[in-house]
Please model this.
Amino acid sequence: MTEEMLLPLGQTPVLYSGLKITASDLLKATIIQSSNDSAEALSYFLGKEDFIKLMNKKAGELGMSNTVYSDTSGLSLNNKSAASDLIKLISYIYKNHPQILEISKKNDFWLPDQSGNMLKFENENKFYYIGEFVGGKSGYLKEAKQTFNSVFNVNGRPVAIAVLYSDNRIADIFSILHQLESIL
Model:
């Protein structure tokens, strides 16, 4: 890790200048605890601008016509998407990279801070303990409220659920799941 990599957000205590960390561990921190500075740092492996270009290219390939990425952490108000696009993304991940969804179900990820003390990354995906949860990612911005993009097994069938602009994503997801259980 370099000072430049830590400039944007720098709030995760286990990320500090001089740290040697794998891209895999940065990805885990990004997914499990929604660590924005881990997402930013991860982009430096390819170069931040190239990383964002690749994100937008993949969105185009997936037919996510209402999606534009302007940063890697998801904090920029210039990022745009639609629920239908997020369903395309989570479906692609489910089919092609299920290991990413598997990471989102973990609540036992630890890294040492600068003093060597082990710090636990708390899972922000509050559904990780539910057997029907296949995986997903939560988000929050004051302007966008609570979001969640996920896959659940409903009556044995995988179902993608995206919630945007929610005051209570947990209640909304449970409400959607309850409704789906009665029709699937």
In short: The domain at 3-183 is CATH 3.40.710.10 (Beta-lactamase). The helical segments are 3-6, 23-32, 36-43, 48-61, 83-96, 98-103, 169-183. The mean pLDDT is 93.
